[in-house]
Amino acid sequence: xxxxxxxxxxxxxxxxxxxxxxxxxxxxxxxxxxxxxxxxxxxxxxxxxxxxxxxxxxxxxxxxxxxxxxxxxxxxxxxxxxxxxxxxxxxxxxxxxxxxxxxxxxxxxxxxxxxxxxxxxxxxxxxxxxxxxxxxxxxxxxxxxxxxxxxxxxxxxxxxxxxxxxxxxxxxxxxxxxxxxxxxxxxxxxxxxxxxxxxxxxxxxxxxxxxxxxxxxxxxxxxxxxxxxxxxxxxxxxxxxxxxxxxxxxxxxxxxxxxxxxxxxxxxxxxxxxxxxxxxx
Length: 281
What we know:
Elements: H1 9-22, H2 31-57, H3 70-84, H4 88-96, H5 98-121, H6 130-175, H7 180-218, H8 225-270, H9 274-278
Helix pairs in contact: 1-2, 1-5, 2-3, 3-5, 7-8
């Protein structure tokens, strides 16, 4: 960490992740988003651990107030690893906001610890002289100013997230809204299917009539063994034609009902305003 102000950039990434989880809804608590956020947190934790180690090395000798950061970093990383393999419990905790709140608390703790280390490295905490007391007061005021700035930035980030969630919600409602164009396409498809089935019935009727004439021509005749077999085959053909014709008629009836249903839906959609259709009213 070569920055003279010892800024720990990984903390900013952790705060962003905690903020997203704090305002997350069911959509942002889906597995793919939890895995992505958990991966980002894990990466930031590894970077933060390196930054803290580098920061401590800036202090000549042993720190006056030794700060154990490993335990809290381990806890945050454990949370990240749980998110990278999400289960029902993690998703439920995310939707309730518990996951974000817990992470925000842990990140605040590690941020305070980093500030304490930084203060010692910068010489703010060495002795307990009057000069240091004044220095602590000034530092405290600086921290208040920094906190107010962070609060303003946090507010803007929350506002941005709320706007983003609103846009995503509107997009979901719009693209899942019933549209008459889709229904009209289904109606057209059903009409084409009915025409095809009617053509099939016409072809089956022609074939049945031709076979019936052939059977009739064989009646009242003394038939050979082969002719009797042929007659049985033709009877089977008639039976199969009747079955195929019934299937085609059922198909026509199904599509006719579908057309009636879809046309009624189209009428219902056309009778509603855009907002009523959008909000499923």
